Design the sequence.
């Protein structure tokens, strides 16, 4: 009987010595941009979820909006 | 696709601050926070040059290295983003960044400093793409909308280029050949490493 009391007392007392894990939750996972958005602002010309079409659309957009040499005779 | 990069053409930038305005408007960035700004070198002296500066999404980002809570992450596109739910606003990243990109709002959870805010390459953050939560914390996610960063897309002189590193490097290279000067790409050596400037990471398809 005494043994059980000592054992339970030790468990209760030593429980304070336990250290709760302090690890961070970490960065939440992010969804790849080629998965698209569920709103009306998405640009047309590519299919959400299709990485290749997203990449090609972005490359075409880069050329069309940022390279004026493609709009002139001088290349 | 190679990784996303910014190029600022100092020969073309006219210090109009249109990129700064576009960024603030697109993401509804609060007072006191400038994710992008225009810096003029040798201001007032003939031959002065202006450059548009923001987070360059470095290949070996010093902010990621010094963050004590590891709130930064890099996307497959090479965009350096961070999780505001993890950030403690310590400011180490601000000291480490060679471009002065990390910004701290004057009102926030942690005293007067708040959680860090910076350019996201218009790629949002670790919330659902295009969601209200993502917009409120990180701004618009234009990449997920199939668009490029607002600052570069609206640049009137096309001094600021943003997009696939190979494509923007090719556009810039063509310009330099055409005009015969201004080959210096400000910040590329610091951000992407002089030896690998313009080169895709190992294993990336181009």
Sequence:
């Amino acid at each position: 009987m005494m043994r059980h009391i000592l054992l339970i007392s030790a468990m209760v007392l030593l429980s304070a010595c336990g250290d709760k894990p302090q690890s961070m939750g970490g960065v939440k996972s992010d969804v790849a941009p080629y998965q698209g958005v569920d709103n009306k602002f998405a640009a047309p010309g590519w299919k959400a979820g299709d990485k290749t079409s997203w990449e090609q659309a972005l490359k075409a957009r880069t050329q069309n909006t940022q390279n004026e040499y493609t709009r002139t005779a001088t290349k | 696709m190679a990784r996303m990069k910014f190029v600022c053409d100092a020969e073309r930038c006219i210090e109009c601050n249109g990129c700064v305005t576009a960024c603030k408007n697109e993401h509804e960035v609060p007072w006191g926070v400038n994710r992008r700004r225009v810096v003029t070198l040798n201001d007032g002296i003939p031959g002065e040059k202006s450059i548009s500066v923001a987070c360059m999404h470095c290949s070996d980002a010093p902010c990621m290295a010094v963050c004590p809570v590891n709130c930064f992450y890099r996307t497959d596109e090479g965009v350096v983003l961070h999780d505001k739910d993890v950030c403690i606003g310590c400011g180490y990243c601000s000291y480490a960044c060679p471009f002065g990109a990390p910004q701290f709002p004057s009102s926030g959870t942690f005293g007067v400093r708040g959680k860090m805010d910076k350019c996201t390459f218009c790629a949002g953050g670790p919330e659902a793409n295009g969601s209200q939560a993502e917009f409120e914390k990180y701004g618009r996610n234009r990449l997920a909308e199939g668009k490029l960063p607002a600052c570069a897309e609206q640049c009137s002189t096309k001094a600021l280029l943003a997009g696939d590193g190979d494509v923007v490097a090719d556009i810039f290279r063509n310009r330099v050949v055409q005009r015969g000067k201004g080959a210096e790409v400000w910040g590329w050596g610091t951000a992407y490493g002089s030896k690998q400037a313009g080169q895709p990471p190992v294993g990336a398809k181009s």
Summary: Chain B touches chain A at residues 1, 69-73, 75-77, 81-83, 85-86, 123-130, 140-141, 143-148, 152-153, 155, 158, 161-164, 167-168, 171, 174-175, 178 (CB under 8 Å). Residues 6 and 180 of chain B are 21 Å apart (CA to CA).
